[in-house]
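So, read this over?
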Amino acid sequence: MVPFRLYRHLIPQLAAAARSPSAPKAAASCAPRRIPPLPALAMAAYGTGVCADSKLLFRQLFEKESSTYTYLLADVGDPEKPAVLIDPVDRTVDRDLNLIKELGLKLIYAMNTHVHADHVTGTGLIKTKLPGAKSVISKASGAKADQSVEHGDKIYFGKLFLEVRATPGHTAGCVTYVTGDSPDQPSPRMAFTGDALIIRACGRTDFQGGSSDQLYQSVHSQIFTLPKDTLLYPAHDYKGFTVTTVEEEVAYNARLSKDKVPANSFGRPEPVLPKDDRCRCTCQHGLRLPGSTIEGLRCSS
């Protein structure tokens, strides 16, 4: 059933039209009144629908300990129902794989938007449980994965694809995955921003090779240039939000919508680390995480 609140704003206009002398007389009928379906934007915002024109199945999943969102997308118009999973968390891998099995999907890619400092990615565990799945992360991250992607690459699952946009600033290897812009792709477009853009905020820039100047440039050139109705899905949320749009963030994101100032996301001057400190941190595979001084981070595998 369509929630009444979605159409409550139309009541004054409908009442005025009914009072108009030119309004047609309603014919007596016992037939049930047809309620129009939810618009595509509303369906996508709820995060549980299938977009009829693109055959996209979409789920937004949540891991409460790190407040991380994981996203499942699949082309259910393809007989094999190929799927991708964005930013999986190790603690919820079993939940995610059970859902994929229940929905009859074939997971082909487990993807990360960046190397995460606040939780362990689930891509390595997924590969042990589902050997056919491949891990994906940006080449600029320096992390290990089956497929390293760069700006402009396209990741296909069935007839649908995600475009890779480099959005460094939170980390040196951050990317945003954006659905395609051709007529056979989901509409409105969807962008999975990682920590580059969080609803009404952004990721911190004082470690892991972060740069507030670079983050500002990334968001304005790669995210805010998308159509204003593009749905933005972050990797984290701490206030109960689930989705936003380009138009909303341009208007209301106090950290990213104002004129650029020479300070990081906490309002302090950019830290300048000694050269020796910039390479102190290594991940579990012995790979350097550029610019980080935080120990114990784990990369994608």
Observations:
- The chain has one domain: 40-267.
- Residues 23-53, 265-301 have pLDDT under 50 and may be disordered.
